[in-house]
Amino acid sequence: MHSSDAVREGLIELLPRLRRLARALAGQAADADDLVQVVLERALARSVQWRPDAALDRWVFAIARNAWRDELRARGREQHLFAPEEAGDTVADGSEARHAQQMELAQALATLPPDHREVVALVLVEGLSYDEAAVLLEVPVGTVTSRLARARATLQAHLGNDA
């Protein structure tokens, strides 16, 4: 199978994970959707650069991370969280408490610096090991550990948890 065909097929399987990562990085549904589109376009356009012996998800996640950093640089400011469009979907379904918790968590994630949000997205959301995240982010494992510890502390303080 040609590498571009393998990338195309692999992207279909990776789509749910890519959407989760994009949502964790961007915070807003519209920005996450835009990020996913950019990542898919870049991955397809650069499919010949992917080596079949390399993990496709790591390659695609690196594209996502770089695309999001490009977007932040282009904006010249950090993202601010606005209520996502789907926030109105659960208004009358009796899940107000769950929805409020999700919004509170989304707001807490939005307060994190981008480098901390990346580590949270990769390790806590996508389940990458510290070593895998370090390779993807091109930083030492200790930096991943440190960023994650600071991100957790910030999230706990923001969410009012003592543990």
Automatic annotation (TrEMBL):
UniProt keyword list: Sigma factor, Transcription, Transcription regulation
Boundaries of every RNA polymerase sigma factor 70 region 4 type domain copy: 103-155
Source species, domain of life: Bacteria
Cited Gene3D superfamilies: 1.10.1740.10, Winged helix-like DNA-binding domain superfamily/Winged helix DNA-binding domain
Entry-linked Pfam families: Sigma70_r2, Sigma70_r4_2
InterPro entries: RNA_pol_sigma-70-like, RNA_pol_sigma-70_dom, RNA_pol_sigma70_r2, RNA_pol_sigma70_r4_t2, RNA_pol_sigma_r2, RNA_pol_sigma_r3/r4-like, WH-like_DNA-bd_sf
Keyword Transcription: yes
Keyword Transcription: yes
Annotated RNA polymerase sigma-70 region domain residues: 14-77
Family of this protein: Belongs to the sigma-70 factor family. ECF subfamily.
Protein name: RNA polymerase sigma factor
